[in-house]
Write a structure and sequence with these properties.
single chain, 255 residues, alpha+beta, Arc Repressor Mutant, subunit A, Beta-Lactamase, six-stranded antiparallel beta sheet, three-stranded antiparallel beta sheet, globular, DNA-binding transcription factor activity, Tscrpt_reg_IclR_N, WH_DNA-bd_sf
């Protein structure tokens, strides 16, 4: 099979996953709601839900279905497999307490950034990010800190797959600008988000490298643009987030 040829997929499994994603986003729903949203027949949705119910992946309350607690077990298993979760959590907690802002750690999977852990300090802003949520990499400091340490070919493939969607006037939307920015990040050692995803929110992130020289993920500090200015934004916080990245790197060797 060539690299450009997609493998055969099973449509029924795809429908099941669509249902799971829909229930995750909507907490609970009736068969008619799910069918209408996904463009499937009520009979098809009923069969898939019956299978999920039989295997304890959903629960039913009256006419509504919602995801079961079984996903907690799966999630904990994924965290344990990573091997660095506890190290990340400890350092993110400490950095959030120290800088009083929102601190987050993310990893790349399937060309998207996935939040692994987050903690807010006393003055932290509330954002839509949540553990497990996936984000485009080109428009957040976490993502750019990771991409900066990938081979160009890998970055090109990620852009081919996900594009460079714009969110604000500051979002990078061309390959030329992206690769110029990534080169600067490699030289500087940390990445900035200049209100590229959310207007009024700035972030700074540093990559976390593994013993094999591969990037494991990135850690960031986020705050309102009115506080993220001057030497604090350009020097103090980058120094703090880089130090925390180094702590995670060192401690992950023994985790």
């Amino acid at each position: 099979m060539s690299e450009t040829t997609k493998p055969r997929t099973i449509q029924a499994v795809g429908i099941t996953l669509e249902i799971i994603d829909f229930l995750h986003e909507n907490d609970s729903a009736r068969i008619t709601e799910i069918a209408a949203e996904l463009g499937r027949s009520k009979g098809t949705i009923h069969c898939h839900l019956a299978t999920l119910l039989e295997n304890e992946y959903v629960v039913r309350n009256g006419e509504e279905y919602q995801l079961s607690l079984r996903y907690l077990h799966l999630g904990e298993g994924v965290k344990d497999r990573l091997g660095i979760y506890d190290v990340v959590a400890d350092e993110v907690d400490e950095l959030a307490s120290e800088c009083n802002e929102l601190v987050q750690f993310a990893m790349e999977e399937h060309g998207r950034g996935v939040y692994l852990y987050k903690k807010g300090g006393d003055q932290a802003v509330q954002t839509a990010s949540s553990v497990g949520k996936r984000e485009y990499l080109h428009c957040i400091s976490l993502g750019k800190a990771i991409l900066a340490h990938y081979p160009r070919e890998r970055v090109e493939k990620i852009v081919d797959r996900h594009g460079l969607p714009g969110y604000t006037d500051q979002t990078i939307t061309t390959r030329e600008e992206l690769f110029e920015n990534l080169e600067t990040i490699r030289e500087r050692g940390h990445a900035f988000d200049e209100e590229e995803k959310i207007e009024g929110l700035r972030c700074v992130a540093a990559p976390v490298m593994g013993t094999d020289g591969q990037v494991l993920g990135a850690i960031s500090i986020s705050g309102p643009s009115r506080r993220m200015t001057g030497d604090r934004y350009r020097e103090e916080l980058p120094n703090k987030v880089t130090r925390s990245a180094n702590v995670i790197e060192i401690n992950s060797k023994f985790s």
